[in-house]
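Please go through the sequence line and token line underneath and see whether the fold suits the sequence. See right below:
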Amino acid sequence: MTITITNIKRTGSDETTSVTIENGVIKGWNLPEEGEVIDGRGGTVVPALIELHAHLREPGQTQKEDLASGLAAAAAGGYGTVVCMPNTSPVIDDPGIVRSLLEKAGTLGQARLRPAAALTRGQKGDELAELTYLKGAGAAMFTDDGRTNENARVLRLGLETAASLGMVVSVHAEDASLRADGVMNEGAVSEAIGVPGNPAAAEAARVARDIEIVAGLHAQGRPVRLHVQHLSTARALDLVRDAKKRGLGVTCEVCPHHLTLTDEALRSFDAIYKVAPPLRTQADAEYLLEGLKDGSVDCIATDHAPHTRAEKERDLLEAPSGIAYIELAFPLMYTRFGASLGLEKILELMTAAPARVMGWPEPTLDAGASADLVVLDLDTEREVKPAEFKSKAKFTPWAGETLKGWPVLTVVDGKVAYRRE
């Protein structure tokens, strides 16, 4: 199969060029047109984005999302690879489930699926899952995301076992006893509106504990890889920054919603803003942004977490946590932070950086490379219209906002996964 994409630009250049893709790889640039010819509309071509943290809800929760809708949404957002979380029904803790998900995803022609498998059986935290067999089936990482790892001994053993397999352990770092029944950030806003708060200390305490586990193993000559998901507080970032200085195998991600929204939004009592960990203060958001600039934060991930509208319309105390927005993550980052971070930095945080966290080859657009790319319209502003989302969760905190940087075309493995009509 051959595709030629014309009328495109590479980052840092105003010259119009074309790329030819053949049999899933980049054949070359500015070659004679071959095969299907696609107009890139003057957009900028970059490597397809990589998502390390998305909830696609299959198996068992397909009323919220499924592989078809979730991977289509990812492709529409410019993502070529998506790591899905295992907190499904049943939990992804069996090699057969991993294989079935990969088999189904391979038939869809959307973004590439890389399933994460549960670190522990049933994500209960008491006993490790069959990690060796899960890796053999195609699991990309191990995590109990959706649950916190309360048993430190089991987490330690999991880190050691994963390291022996060359795998990353990703953690939802909150101390459950400190979090208790908190549904939003503990602070001035929670006190003012009378809603139970989740203190920043819940995240920092758990990050500190997990780092000490890593440090202890490192001191014994047993290096492991710990990735902290959706980091949300300044204090937790300081702990990660210090761990990096100590040469420990600790990485972290930050989500766009923790950069662009704060706990002030919860004054509305609208559960669309309820996430875990919760939206923090403006000071936290600004500190996380500085962490992106100085490299303390390794990458951007969305924690795409679709729910039904009925669920999110429940009382703030009862509604589930999560925001679904994988389709607008790049436009949101580029519109809000393009001036302060720059295009190249944002792209690195959403492509090469997540690849480094996972130990994957960094994506490239060189001839001979796998043809995973996205063409972005960096100039045209478009309104966020949730009704047009590919995701089943057709609502968002950013509805009605005007953003730029929307994908025009996404190619995965040399095949068109998304094309804006």
In short: The longest helix spans residues 200-219. The longest strand covers residues 373-383. The CA atoms of residues 30 and 378 lie 22 Å apart. The mean pLDDT is 97.
